[in-house]
Amino acid sequence: MRTAEETVRALWRSFDEGRFEAVRDLLSEDFVADWPQTRERIRGADNFIALNANYPGRWRCRVERIVVTGDEAISLVEISDPSHRLYAVSFFTFAGGRIESAREFFGDCGAPPFERGQWTERY
Amino acid sequence: MRTAEETVRALWRSFDEGRFEAVRDLLSEDFVADWPQTRERIRGADNFIALNANYPGRWRCRVERIVVTGDEAISLVEISDPSHRLYAVSFFTFAGGRIESAREFFGDCGAPPFERGQWTERY
Predict the structure, then answer these.
(1) I need a labelling partner for A37 at 20 to 30 A (CA). Which of A103, B30, B71, B90 fits?
(2) To the nearest whole angstrom, how far is the Cα of A48 from the nearest Cα of chain B?
């Protein structure tokens, strides 16, 4: 049985490689994803796979960190296509070695929203 | 000495109440915050306090979760003013009972960016 970290890594590798159907084996029967920013819920592997497969663009996924704690894993992933860059933070729970739930947050990259260079450095 | 969770909770409570100067005691001498989405670095308590105090708007902060693992804490916070809502995920490290670093990600709330209701439910 995969560890939580291996399962999360396999999920993001599949997305990175555009192999969306491959995530089916990583998800439990009653898998649910919540996207609180848009108040969207995605029930079941079929919907989750179809939504990701139909997402406009060809997105690469680079795992920056996976933190495992208790029965939960948290991933921080940089997602990009040639013209966009964003970060995803995902809180995963598990059941029987598969992902049972994902609660995901997405932050777009871009310029600072107001002039604040007196307190910050750019890198 | 405060626990990591207590320290993080105190930080967000201070921001929620608009008591920005109160976070000074929670931060280590060499505190640094990174905001990777804008590639900004904020060095030192003075800059971090001033930037937050001068952030346009009067933002309320509701801690949804704090996950502590090893020498790190991760907070998930809903931040809102009357016209905006966003989530912040912050990865904190500690030294001597104070926050030594924060790596923070911010995700705005809003409508789904394309029509995908065939795979999702709104809640």
Answers:
(1) B71
(2) 7
